[in-house]
Design a protein that fits this description.
- It holds the Pfam family Ogr_Delta.
- 15% of the residues lie in helices and 31% in strands.
- It has 87 residues and is of the alpha+beta class.
- It has two domains: 48 residues, N-terminal domain of TfIIb (Single Sheet), CATH 2.20.25; 38 residues, no CATH class.
- The protein has a four-stranded antiparallel β-sheet, with no helix packed on it.
- Strand 2 and strand 3 form a beta hairpin.
Length: 87
């Protein structure tokens, strides 16, 4: 699956031509506008920024914070179980 995004200059579809991994959580993607009259090529970043559901196979070198909604849900569950003082 190739991810396409609008060209920032003409709004035509820009398609991913290649990419390179910079880290376990960051990738640079090289895009090319499909409008030949525009011809814009550019680089975009794709980054994993937070965890919505923890991995059952975590890597020690990957550090992604929990989403605030997940933290709130977990804290609420702990409070219901009487495991943390409520605020």
């Amino acid at each position: 699956m190739r991810i396409s995004i609008p060209c920032p200059h003409c709004d035509a579809r820009a398609t991913a031509r290649s990419s390179r991994q910079l880290s376990k959580t960051l990738r640079e993607i090289y895009y090319q506008c499909t409008d030949v009259e525009c011809g814009h090529t550019f680089v975009a970043s794709l980054e994993a920024t937070r965890t919505l559901s923890p991995s059952s196979k975590p890597r020690t070198e990957v550090r992604l914070p929990l989403s605030p909604a997940v933290v709130h849900r977990v804290m609420h569950q702990l409070e219901l179980q009487g495991l943390t003082p409520s605020t």
